[in-house]
TrEMBL record:
<keyword id="KW-0472">Membrane</keyword>
<dbReference type="Pfam" id="PF00512">
    <property type="entry name" value="HisKA"/>
</dbReference>
<feature type="domain" description="Histidine kinase">
    <location>
        <begin position="217"/>
        <end position="416"/>
    </location>
</feature>
<dbReference type="InterPro" id="IPR036890">
    <property type="entry name" value="HATPase_C_sf"/>
</dbReference>
<dbReference type="InterPro" id="IPR003661">
    <property type="entry name" value="HisK_dim/P_dom"/>
</dbReference>
<feature type="transmembrane region" description="Helical">
    <location>
        <begin position="128"/>
        <end position="149"/>
    </location>
</feature>
<dbReference type="InterPro" id="IPR003594">
    <property type="entry name" value="HATPase_dom"/>
</dbReference>
<keyword id="KW-0808">Transferase</keyword>
<keyword id="KW-0597">Phosphoprotein</keyword>
<protein>
    <recommendedName>
        <fullName>histidine kinase</fullName>
        <ecNumber>2.7.13.3</ecNumber>
    </recommendedName>
</protein>
<dbReference type="InterPro" id="IPR050428">
    <property type="entry name" value="TCS_sensor_his_kinase"/>
</dbReference>
<keyword id="KW-0418">Kinase</keyword>
<keyword id="KW-1133">Transmembrane helix</keyword>
<keyword id="KW-0812">Transmembrane</keyword>
<dbReference type="Pfam" id="PF02518">
    <property type="entry name" value="HATPase_c"/>
</dbReference>
<dbReference type="InterPro" id="IPR005467">
    <property type="entry name" value="His_kinase_dom"/>
</dbReference>
<dbReference type="GO" id="GO:0016301">
    <property type="term" value="F:kinase activity"/>
</dbReference>
Amino acid sequence: MKLSEHYTRTSVYITLTVLVIGAVIYYFAIDYIGRQQLDRGLQQQLTEAEEYSRSNNGNPQQYDLDRDHAVFVKTGKKLLQKRFFDTTYFNPKEQRKEAGRAVEDLVKLKDNNYKIVITISRAGQKNLIELISIITLALLAGLLAVLFITNKYLLNGLWKPFQLTLKEIKQFNIADHDQFKGRPSKVDEFTELNEAIKEMSLRVTHDYLNLKQFTENASHEMMTPLAVVTTKLDTLIQDETLSAEQLAQITDIYSSVNKSSRLNQSLLLLAKLENKLITEEEPIDLEITLIEKILQFQELMQNREINFQHNLKPKHILASKYLVDILLNNLFGNAVRHNNAGGSIFVNINSNQLIIKNTGIATALNGQQIFGRFQKGKDSQGTGLGLTLVKNICQLYGYTIQYEYEPGWHKFVITF
């Protein structure tokens, strides 16, 4: 969820809560004020009723003044607490009952005590309170609608500099010459953010260039002596005067030097992949490329008596031919190298996936670790970077690769 949506939701929730609580308090306050006003009217009616009774020689009777009703009931009680209460009022004109308010008190007339109950209608006041409540709720709903529209649409422009900065960060490539610039903003926080990101990008670019230069220099300086050593070893191997033991030792040295050279090249390639320095792309027919790769490994598979099957369909991708060749070399090399003598390899390609599976050890591999650097079996003669290169190449082009184990089969699936 976006920050603006979080802000809108939070502000709406808080506003709604405050307004609902305020509306409830407002309703009860109006109701209380209305009751107090009715009670003052009832007190006045009570006084008038008492005066009316005394002016009629102490002979009380039920009377109706305006919309008010007074009832006198003779009682033996000498004390009665005056009280105001809600009740029902019978409207003689409408011939129906409606909400009312009443007062009850004790009136002394000569030697007799009378309980007087005066009732007045509060329907008009209740209707007024309901009307005020409806108007208040309508105002609350309108306020919430305005608040929502303002936060969702009108305030979007406030976040535009941030969105532009975020877009520029996503497009930022450490290898490009164009540095992060940031977009001007009237908001101090966004301006400060742009300055911080710009300063950080300059430091990162400077460190990257230094590291890149060091890596390239180190790789170049390592390759030169390795090439010299390889040349010298080639000359020694051709020496017919060497004993079998000396030849075996030189062969081991030659193998180690070649492994060091491959390791150096693999690490350099990984650095380029992680920094997205390989950008050349061209249309590739993966079906034809796979057929060529099968022919390259055919002799090696025949030497180990490996049965090969395939189901190939046309599939075109846009990628570096050099990286695709490295990817397929590592996958085919693993399928042959870690296969059983007389085992099988199956390759399938369709519009969505490339599947390469082979027979091998009867236990599953760790699907998370095998793509890590220098993860290899005890008897492996490789550098331990083959599947790491495969994973990084897939990530470069947005593909996913996963390892699956079926009974007797190890399967690698690349999803395009």
